[in-house]
Design the sequence.
């Protein structure tokens, strides 16, 4: 299916407040640039907690644990945790809209927290990546991930940074939707915590040093013996 994403004048990326004096405008922009929003995608409900589709929630939970913060409030139909990282405000979110409507929550969070486009990171599953693989990208299509597609449509742009967590293709003739709504099998579940830890470090590297550094360090499979590599020029997803 061909994707159609339109940039519109009412995009949430547009700044909602413009200062009239030069120094005030620079200060306002600097403050807004000092906030990051990391969104983990999944479905609400205990029955989905350990499924492949909910790996984004597990990454967000591990991030909160690592940072010593809690999901103690709700905002724009998402559980939200707030903290600080090297002088920047860091907001974690787990939308509760169900996966296919994630854009409703994320676009509201972007507007509420006034997050610059480059400072949003969406963490989600990807069936086209082998198990044990992480891919960081600054922009691109949804690769068929419906939560990501909802976000791209709601924000009106493909320039949405993302962390894709490989969960592998469905076996045999199994439908992809059924595959992602199944729990990880025993063998995969043994390595999930290792990859989640790696995803957390990738997300924090994105906050600390930017997407290029995160891509160079973490765009590799779990089995890759190299600690870092150059990003693949043809990796468009």
Sequence:
């Amino acid at each position: 299916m061909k994707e159609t994403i339109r940039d519109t004048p009412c995009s949430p990326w547009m700044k909602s407040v413009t200062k009239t004096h030069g120094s005030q405008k620079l200060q306002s922009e600097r403050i807004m640039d000092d906030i990051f929003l990391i969104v983990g995608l999944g479905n609400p409900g205990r029955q989905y907690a350990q499924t492949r589709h909910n790996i984004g929630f597990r990454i967000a939970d591990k991030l909160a644990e690592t940072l010593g913060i809690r999901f103690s409030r709700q905002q724009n139909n998402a559980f939200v945790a707030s903290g600080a990282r090297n002088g920047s405000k860091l907001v974690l979110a787990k939308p509760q809209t169900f996966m296919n409507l994630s854009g409703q929550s994320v676009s509201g969070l972007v507007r509420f927290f006034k997050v610059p486009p480059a400072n949003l990171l969406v963490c989600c599953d990807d069936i086209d990546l082998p198990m044990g693989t992480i891919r960081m990208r600054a922009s691109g299509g949804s690769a068929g991930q419906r939560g990501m597609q909802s976000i791209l449509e709601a924000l009106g742009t493909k320039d949405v940074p993302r962390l894709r967590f490989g969960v592998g293709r469905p076996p045999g003739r199994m439908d992809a939707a059924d595959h992602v709504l199944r729990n990880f099998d025993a063998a995969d579940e043994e390595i999930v915590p290792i990859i989640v830890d790696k995803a957390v470090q990738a997300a924090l590297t994105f906050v600390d040093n930017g997407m290029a550094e995160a891509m160079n360090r973490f765009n590799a499979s779990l089995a890759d013996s190299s600690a870092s590599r150059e990003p693949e020029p043809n990796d468009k997803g």
Summary: Strands lie at 35-40, 73-74, 78-85, 88-95, 120-126, 134-137, 162-166. The chain has one domain: 23-218.
